[in-house]
Amino acid sequence: MIGRIAGRIEYKGLDSVLIDVRGVGYVVHCSDRTLAGLPGVGEAVALWTDLLVREDLLQLFGFPTMVEKEWHRLLMSVQGVGAKASLAILGTLGPDGVSRAIALGDWNAVKAAKGIGPKTAQRVVIELKDKAPTVMAMGAAGQSTPSLDDFDVIEPASPKPKAAPAAKPNASAQAEALSALGNLGYAPGEAAGAVAQAAGDDPEADTAALIRAALKLLAPKG
Fold first, then answer.
1. Could you tell me if 75 and 131 are in contact, meaning their C-beta atoms sit under 8 angstroms apart?
2. Do residues 90 and 133 touch, judged by C-beta distance below 8 A?
3. Which of 130, 157, 179 lies at the terminal end of a domain, its last residue?
């Protein structure tokens, strides 16, 4: 499995980019949004990748963040959503937009992607709603763009620093949950209240569990 690629851009097409990795060229398919954010021809680039394997086809798909790659994997698990449809959704909404639409049940936002009908959009929201908090937690925890240094440089092992004093139970999880809810558009006050209540109900909850519980508390009543 090819999970990441780093090299030099040799060519940019309408839906893909050719990346030269030490003399070997890889065609990597990307969403419109990702292609627009890539550097120019001749410049270095690093992408997370997902390899699609079929009897008569091998295709690489590239993503600037691990969160976007994970959403692609989950979108592809929904019946009726292939690689092209997944890239259309991610290209239209971006990973944060996908998280927001699915967590809030906004299938109309998903339907705005090219080639996505209402039934498919509703299926995406229904099937992935319970998984949204886990992916949102990945983003809040700082899963980001792969560094070019990750691929070519191996640093010597350094002495481990002394352990820091233990933090309050799930303090970092609360901060990450607040960040995720902020990305969904919730006001700081209401998000903080919901997270605090969720943390009080379950002091050992991780980030995904806090997000899930807070979303239930923030959901419209009645």
1. no
2. no
3. 130
